[in-house]
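Usage

Read records sequentially. Each one opens with the input sequence:
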Amino acid sequence: MNRALWFKSIREARLLLLSCAVLMFIFNWIFVWVTSLVDLSALRIFLKALPPEMQNLSGVSVDEVATYSGRIALAYVDPVVLMVAAVWAISRGSDAVSGEINRGTMELLIAQPVRRFTVLWTQATVTIVGGMLIAASCLLGTAMGLWTIEFDEPIKAATFIPAATNIFGLIFFLAGTSTLASSWESYRWRTVGLMGGVFIIGLIIKVMARTVSKLDWLAYFTFFGAFEPQAMVSNTDRAWELVLRYNSLLLGMGLAAYIAATVIFCRRDLPAPL
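and closes with the structure output:
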């Protein structure tokens, strides 16, 4: 039965995973190519002419953004990357329990000789491994771009490994909290709506904390406060220290959400098929 569960989870995830991974790979490759076309001296002048509030949006200084590495690192906080990460994590997390109930398949699933723990964690494991592959696709896209496009200065693809691990941390956190929301819900659309709201509100709080100096304390009240891939690229000497600090928060909160989801799902009285 466990083998059947693995096949089921992989079969349900494979098309979305392939789409997300290919999109991340191509986007990061193209971003490197676009970066090679930018005149950095003109970019530095342009960025320094912006109001201080706008300069703070990137999370690093203008001088660091106006380097090839700094520009390429912006791909890791681009809305395209954030949306793909959110689509994968929320769609998979919301499907864990409320999706199965919504489709009317949960009753058939738990009627089999298999524990609820196994049902939940088989799906979660596929989601987590998929998150790793999506983050790795970002790094591979960057590496392919650096391999195929020539720059005036040498840039190592390894510089962007900490940034990719931070993307995985974000995906893990979103997948865990989505699974937690799914564990008590019966309608998948409500889980997706709730997590979509959490994602957007978290992003708005981060932007407010960045653009208004008096509100920088708000960064402690959003999970995006632990998402700083561009800072990990700019501060190479402290990159792994930052990975440990930020990823331990994201992975810790995500794991706590997965554990809470497991407890709720294993003790919950499941409704009849909707």
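Summary fields computed downstream for this record:
- The mean pLDDT is 90.
- The longest helix spans residues 2-36.
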